[in-house]
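User: Some background: our group keeps a shared notebook of sequences we're curious about, and every so often someone picks one and asks for a predicted structure to add to the entry. Today it's my turn. The entry only has the sequence so far, pasted here. Could you supply the structure so I can complete it?
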Amino acid sequence: MTEHTPQLTDRELRWFGAILAVALVVVFCLLLPLLYSREIPWWPVGIAALLVLLAATWPRSLAPMHRGWMRVGNVLGWINTRLLLGAVFFLLVVPLGALMRLLGRHGIARGRDASAASYRVPVTSKDPAKDLTRPF
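Assistant: Of course. Here's the predicted structure to add to the notebook entry:
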């Protein structure tokens, strides 16, 4: 995980405050009331207005909130990476490997040939469309 967060400019902090305010209103005043058939809460609008006011007048006050937000994002990204890569490995790579093993196929040439001078496979055709010596 990244431990170093760069020094943010006032402009970047203003954008952070504005985007966070809009996201807060969209999630709590639009999406959740529509999904759960509830009435629209007005407290997110007040918090969003405070965020916009702070972003416009004193953006440095949002720096600790930005650092916390980025820490949470880094932790969630770390967890998601492990979950997604683990799922891809165990749901895609392992079954394909087991299937190939059951069928007796190998994706690579296996075994050692003591009499071979090299394991290099020479190119048989010189197709210019597939030759990447001079691609441009």
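Suggested note for the entry: Helices lie at 10-36, 43-57, 63-103. Residues 63-103 form the longest helix (41 residues).
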